[in-house]
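Page 47, continued from p. 46.
Same chain as before, 564 aa.
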Amino acid sequence: MSTYDVIIQGGMIVDGTRLPRYRADIGVKNGRIVKIGRLPAHEAAKTIDANGLIVAPGFIDLHTHYDAQIYWDPYCTISGWHGVTSAVIGNCGFGFAPVRPEERDRSMMMMTRVEAIPYAAMKAGMPWDWVTFPEYLNSVERTPKGINLLPYVPVAPIMIWAMGLEGAKSGRLPTEKETEAMCRLIHEGMDAGGCGWSAQRLGANSIQMDYDGTPMVTDIMHDETCMAFARVLAERNEGFIQSIFLSPTGKNDDAQRHFEALARESGRPILYNVVQASDRFPERHRNQLDWLERCRAEGLRIYGQGVTTDPGFVFTFEDWNLWDDDPAWLEATVGTLEEKRTKLSDPKRRPGLKSTTSGLISDSFEDIFVLSVKNPDLKQWENLKLGEVASRQGKHPVDAMLDLAVADDLKTEFYTTIGCSLPYLSEIVRSDLALLGVSDGGAHTKFFTAGRYPTETIQRLVRENSVLSLEEAHWKLSAQPAWCAGFRDRGTLREGSPADIVIYDYDSLKVLPMEVAYDMPGNEWRRVQRAEGYHYVLVNGEVTIKDDQPTGATPGRLLRHGQG
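Result:
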């Protein structure tokens, strides 16, 4: 019998601890790293030649929404194509358990706008062989996985289960009995392996609404309820909270005080969404980073989830919802295709649409690109900014955009981005209190491809611009998120750890161009970006990616309580 199942020979090891890189072999047995050093090849059943390559811990993606996609995509792509070996599900308070059988359809509809997951894909791809959250985890555990999954307990289904959909949507304060029931369900979920709880709390004018244009139940959750949930973690002395919160007052100071109160009440770490750079508002991310530093000085474990990819969006008005915080745009983009087309063509609505205060997606309407049109009579407007289209037509940019979209049956593809220059982004990624990512890998898949962020980090922030050293990058891609989200023994290459390993060519690693893939159930499609340069990816000691292509192996595990 061989001493090792696999020996990775001659690679340059960047172990995730921020210590200097070094050249050595790695011996793997029964899914774990058992020896690092100089190892004789004949002692292994299989060898991997890593000469000239970087050997590093697999990447950990903390914000994914793969709760449904895992059932039709074992590799949780695009994350799995970009070296991610472990991901967190149950983000933002959203998930599919506990859900009563008669409420399954409504729970899927709920995800079609807030996270833009296609209903047809969920309907065709999910087995629904569960009711409770523990049963859902059992289902995930049975499902073949190409990566590891760590679950949060999402609180939206819990609120609906305990209060009823109408009660949870009413905005009323839960009764004492309902609060006790919800806390019991969080305990039950964590007993089953959940690693904390999550909630999106964006208020009545949430940027991400339910399919019918109403706030998600967590958006209008009361502070008292949130604190009751925090006390569950205090009682258990375990778990993490992942949350995004906008104060009803609109003041950042009030939102920050809320997170500080959560940290004190729970005594547990908080993952705060999101820290994002913007050329228009550089003071925003700087204030957030200053606040995180003050929290550290006070001993509060609050970490910012940074948006670290180039924040570009491709959208059509068939699907677009990321101006939901503006009431005029929300009302105009809810409904069937025909209803949306009618509303967006209505001249009486245009003044309200032109006066939008939403600043999340674009610096200005003039800067939005017309990427492609389907109607051949409209081809002359492709690859122009709306400002130029509007100038040529003698129209306001919003009129130019919507007239074009309506004439193209809402199929015109537009491209927009939040201006985010490298110096501002660098301020975020260099902070020890800011995590990399916000991939949303299983959400908004018709709009953007942020699951590429690990590859983009190495390509753009390390190799091309020297914002981070390679050692710093691998700490931020693996060890730091592992610790912050409750992974027990992953994130670094050390003897005794699970063998989640990426092996890549530093000089050639890159993100490939965006493409459209028709690879979802229900004849649905998505935008994807693949990677080039990953010679091998190992999950629990088995090769899942070879020369950038999935091998079909499914050694991933459900990481109950952060381990497995």
